[in-house]
Amino acid sequence: MSWISQKKAYWKDANHWVCPNHLPAVKIPSCLSHCWYSSCNTEMPKKPESIAQTSKILRIFDPASCQWEKCTEGQGGRRGLITTRKKYCSNKCRKNQARFNYTQRKKREKANA
What we know:
Elements: E1 10-13, E2 16-19, E3 26-29, H1 49-54, H2 91-112
Antiparallel strand pairs: 1-2, 2-3
């Protein structure tokens, strides 16, 4: 028996589906057909008709480019291209995103205190 949960993926809303095989469960954009994690083989579930009919998908998320907003690793100073099941084009971008999230969280905590 595998340590990975045998729960099935499901749709959270029209633009996101959830892979429940992780703690916490991972919310994934609808434009990706597989889970972010390379060790997970979960595929996107079929979209129920109730969600498919009401969805108004705005494609801001480009699955082929790096998710760090200020990435300049690509050709001509554009966002870098990613490989399968990755969010960032490099560790540099991944760490920059983590630093940015940390500073934003600290600013929110300071404002709320």
